[in-house]
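Milestone M4 deliverable, item 7.
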Amino acid sequence: MEQRKSGWSALLYGKDGIKTLTLVGAVALHAINIYIVVTILPSIVRDIGGERYYSWAATIFMATSLLGATLAPQFIRKISPRWAYIVAALIFATGTFVCGFAHGMAIFLFGRLIQGLGGGFLLSLSYSMVRIVFPQDLWSRALGIISGMWGISTLLGPAIGGLFAQYHIWRASFWLVGILSMLFIIVAYLVLPQQNTDTSPSRPMALIQILLLIIVVLVISIASILDTTSAKLIGLAVGIMLFILLAVFDSTSKNKLLPRGSFSPKSPFFYIYSLMLILAISVNATELYLPLFLQELHNEEPLIAGYLTALMSIGWTLGSITSAGAGQIRIKRVIVIAPIIALIGFVTLGIFIPSSLASGLFHIVVTLALLLIGIGIGSSWPHILTSVLVLAQNEDTERASASLTTVQLYSTAISAALAGIITTLAGINTPGGVPGATSAAYALFIAIIILLLLGIPFSIGVMRRITHRRPDNFTQQS
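Output delivered:
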């Protein structure tokens, strides 16, 4: 009888290698698509119009991704892993082709809605299927490979999107992703199991809380396209009140979305999730609008703008890798200084992006600032996430694991909504053009700087609380 391979070889060769390729491919489709759209979005708006809905391309996608990721665990229990993946990929492919053939912003956003739902399914299913298709000794390596696809996507996404946008055929990037998703459906049908072998008990979904999260995002997004400043501010206030309602409901509900006490300043989770939102919103809002600012204000080609934007994610990956094995003293330091390092980078961007400076100096300074932001936040990120898992106890452990995806998807969605309000208030559509982009860039970076200043006390709060309650194996888990 042939002995089963172990270690990395078990994931990279034979039938298990094809399974790995399938799960990695699902995450790659979702992640590469994000960076493609970020790169080509200015070209899309110039071609089909809808400037005032610029941020909605990300908002709608991430809002429905959040819904898809939440429904995925129940979805995989209802039908087989094979058909769950196939249905998810079909939904994603359908939305992708709708985007590729759209000749107006309304149809394009409808495609993004469908695409986001399928993408959320794919993302969550890939993590869930690790438990089903691989033995336990391969779980950590499989998750490591899947997570690594985000770093690779920062290289492939801007390249694909930038090249197609540069030759004025941005639609072809959607067609390419759609065709790839259809090919992955064939592979999934051939290699993924028909039966679900995961017998762990299921937990009721906190569907009301998830719907409230999505409604908050949509209300703030709608506020960004209202005509008057007062209407925008009222919409923002309604969104904030709905979020408070969510906090009250989740705190009193038996079926919670987040671990107990997450909305109370007495809980360490309050500081951890707040810091996660602050850091992620800063990066996500910048990734959405930086390609537009670079192309509008500095005449950068889409390919160059896309790769400059990807520098934050590249720096994030480098920071995460280099700090993953840090000891307790270094962990405390990186968590506290993460918003400070990011603050330095964003102040630099706030000075250089809206202004006209010498090309050589501009590129050097902006490159260093973007890398600095990514490395600063990335070095703290694995330890912030690990602290959620370490501090969760008893029935909160499953909620804590699920919250990592939920909070990150929500931060991306809400960042697009908030950035949409800030930039429209600053005049990105009216007066528009270079003057509008200039004032919008100033406003966005000032808002991010203020947000990061508020993040410093939260980073200190995280450091104090996780070190006081940290078990001995914290560093190993991170």
